[in-house]
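Box S1 | Example of a co-folding query
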Amino acid sequence: SKSQLTYGARASTHPNPLARKLFQVAEAKKSNVTVSADVTSTKELLDLADQLGPYIAVIKTHIDILTDFGPQTIAGLQALAQKHNFLIFEDRKFIDIGNTVQKQYHGGTLRISEWAHIINCSILPGEGIVEALAQTAQAMDFPYGADRGLLILAEMTSKGSLATGPYTAASVDYARKYPSFVLGFVSTRSLGEVPATVAASADEDFVVFTTGVNLSSTGDKLGQQYQTPQSAVGRGADFIIAGRGIYAAPDPQEAARQYQQQGWEAYVARVGG
Ligand code: 5BU
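Box S1 (continued) | Returned holo structure for 5-bromo-uridine-5'-monophosphate
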């Protein structure tokens, strides 16, 4: 697997332009942290993005939990993404027939395709969902089409998750079938060992985002299950996603710095630095 290589090396060889960008940002900022900014107002979201911007590679949003979403939300996020050099991941988890997800991704109230570099989907509906989202991204005008990518939700961190076994294997198959749009996975580990049907290509280099990362807790009362940055990166996470561990900390900026440092040290150890 390519996870033993540095972000810099993967940035220079990866066939997907958005994956290259992700690795470049990580390398430039020495951060593999994605903050899950699960706050419910535009002001809180933008304040958090501005405060934490220097320490993160990606901001993950749940744009539909905002009580006051509007054009100012998007303009603000985009300006901060520029200012601090981070990418935007909307954790919308598309899960429907192709015709519906295309409308949810492009247009509508949320206009996700216009501002989210990264989106994700469940493959419960079958391969068609990946094809439909890829089609929408490809049909977008430059400069958007060039830097849009999908993460397949191959596993989940909640207790009793059904995203296992054949479901996870099919996630790998679909990722291999749509390499120009699928960046990789949201999963708890690298999926190189999963017995998929479609064979890997020589240059395969999936990007692994791992949610459920927390330094001070092992879970919540609703079934969330946590691992540490060390554990996640050791199991193959290229980007660690932390929500409450950062934004609900007494000092979110200090927490972000701490996750950045620990995530980076774990990465350096993995690549043999
Ligand atoms: P937390 O506060 O670090 O527990 O937030 C985790 C975030 O990651 C939250 O936005 C979830 O919706 C998201 N998440 C997750 O926790 N587990 C998963 O398997 C997936 C997403 Br996919």
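Residues 209 and 239 are 5 Å apart (CA to CA). The two ends are 17 Å apart (CA to CA).
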